[in-house]
Design brief:
Blueprint: H1 2-41
């Protein structure tokens, strides 16, 4: 049982880290896009 659940935990941690890695650039890009949109409107 422990041999089966251990890879799942590490895989979950891997996906969490992957999500964090992808979240920052995506949030930064969306933020830049919003700032560009506000800048073009005003």
């Amino acid at each position: 049982m422990t041999a089966k659940t251990a890879p799942k935990v590490t895989l979950w941690e891997f996906f969490q880290q992957l999500g964090k890695t992808f979240m920052l650039p995506v949030a930064l890009l969306s933020f830049c896009g919003i700032m560009l949109g506000i800048g073009s409107f005003s």
